[in-house]
Specification:
By secondary structure, the protein is α/β, with parallel strands linked by helices. It contains six helices and twelve strands. It has a single domain, classed as Rossmann fold, CATH 3.40.50.2020.
Length: about 220
Amino acid sequence: MVNVLSHGSSVINQFLAELRDHEIQKDSLRFRKNLERMGEIFAYEISKTLKYEEREVVTPLGIAQVPVLKEYPVLISILRAGLPFHQGFLNIFDKSENGFVSAYRKPHKDHTFTIQVEYLSMPALAGKTLIICDTMIATGSSLVMTYRELLTRGKPGHVHVVSILASQEGLDRARMQLPQNDVTFWLGAIDDELTAQAFIVPGLGDAGYLAYGKKA
């Protein structure tokens, strides 16, 4: 299943417009804050799909029956642009376990690249609901590689993949290579074009650079 939040009328379109705007992007604090806000909105939408149980809550005047989360999802981010996005989810799912993956493009002389997973810090995942925060799905390769690495920590019950932007090509590749019954995609928007250098067009540029500055 693929859910694209920009297809409806909501404030997420305002935040997405600001993330794309090259003038507003000059304010890195606002860029990070908009990533965080979008994370909160995605978390709220995903919360509607999770399992709940009734709990008695004692108020100053009596007892209320309230449905509460039966189990919190595990939040997983692909570094480094995923950090403020991740924080938005953590603001909502504040009792969640957290995992982090360092994946990057390793360029070659022929202008191609491969995806390298350099670091993995993860709780046990068997049977759990995961939310993978991958800010941009360009080719889909880093997402697929990350998912395969996560399986070494246990097969999850269900995976929600969340991204601000995806190229149609990258989304199609990810959907082909990830188990369809076990993965749900939540996207801000889908852009049609992916350049030969694997940049999404119109996209928004390099989210990691815009959030945290250039890498040496």
